[in-house]
Write a structure and sequence with these properties.
120 residues; mainly beta; 4-stranded antiparallel sheet; 60% strand
Length: 120
Amino acid sequence: QVQVVESGGGLVQPGGSLKLSCAASGSILRTDGMGWYRQAPGKQRELVAAIISGSSTNYADSVKGRFTISRDNAKNTVYLQMSSLQPGDTAVYYCYLTVWDNNGQFGKYWGQGTQVTVSS
C-alpha cells in the first residue's frame, strides 16, 4: 500500500512565494513520473507541472518562469516551488506520483490536495 501526503499550502500576498511538498510512503520499489495539478473554483483541473524519472520537466504556460518542479527520489518526494504568485494561482493543488510497488504493480497515487490562496 502507498500513502501520499501533501504539505505547504497557505495564504500568501501577491508577489510572494510558497513551496509545496508531496511525499509517498509504503511499499515502494521506485517512483516514475510525478507532478502537480490545480483546480480553481468553477474551473477544470489543470496540469501545472510534471517531472519524469529522468528529470525532464513540463510546465503550463501560465506558470513558466515562476514555478519550479523538482524531486528527491531517495525520499519519494516531489516539490513545487512557486514564486511571483498571482491571484490567478489561487486553487487547490493536487500532487501525483506514479509508483512501482514491491509487488511489481504500477499505480498513480494522488495527494489529498492543499489550498493555495493568493490575496492581499
